[in-house]
């Protein structure tokens, strides 16, 4: 099984998502962040379930969907995974991943 590491930037995105939603509903914010985290755990057993992000052809970057969010991750040569970021679907992900 692959090991999953969250980059500092990905953790910061997750905190920002929580803070934004928590302004109106802290319970909902917790559910969303927990859901994102749990969805990412699927990658331990199924690392290629996300669709390939072709804008970076020389790296094995993939995108896993969770509701309105996109979880960007890198499958490293050793099979382990780095979560690169969590982006709302309305954001231009290319701006952040290139």
Mean residue pLDDT: 93
**How would you spell out the order of helices and strands?**
EHHEEEEH
CATH superfamily: RelE-like
Distance between the termini: 28 Å
Low-pLDDT parts are none
Integer tally of domains: 1
CATH class: Alpha Beta
Task: Name the shape in a single word.
Answer: globular
Give your account of this protein's structure.
- The protein has one domain (4-97): YaeB-like fold, CATH 3.30.2310.
- It is built from three helices and five strands, in the order E-H-H-E-E-E-E-H.
- The protein has helices spanning 8-22, 26-41, 93-97; strands spanning 4-6, 51-52, 61-66, 69-75, 81-88.
- It has a five-stranded mixed β-sheet with strand order 1-5-4-3-2.
- 23% of the residues are buried.
Would you summarize the structure shown here?
The protein is an alpha+beta fold. The chain has helices at 8-22, 26-41, 93-97; strands at residues 4-6, 51-52, 61-66, 69-75, 81-88.
Task: Give me the secondary-structure topology.
Elements: E1 4-6, H1 8-22, H2 26-41, E2 51-52, E3 61-66, E4 69-75, E5 81-88, H3 93-97
């Amino acid at each position: 099984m692959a090991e999953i590491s969250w980059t500092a930037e990905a953790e910061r995105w997750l905190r920002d998502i929580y803070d934004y939603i928590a302004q109106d509903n802290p319970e909902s914010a917790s559910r969303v962040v927990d859901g994102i985290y749990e969805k990412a755990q699927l990658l331990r057993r199924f690392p290629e379930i996300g669709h390939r992000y072709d804008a970076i052809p020389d790296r094995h970057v993939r995108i896993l969907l969770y509701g309105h969010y996109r979880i960007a991750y890198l499958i490293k040569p050793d099979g382990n995974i780095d979560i690169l970021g969590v982006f709302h679907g309305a954001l231009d992900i290319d701006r952040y991943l290139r």
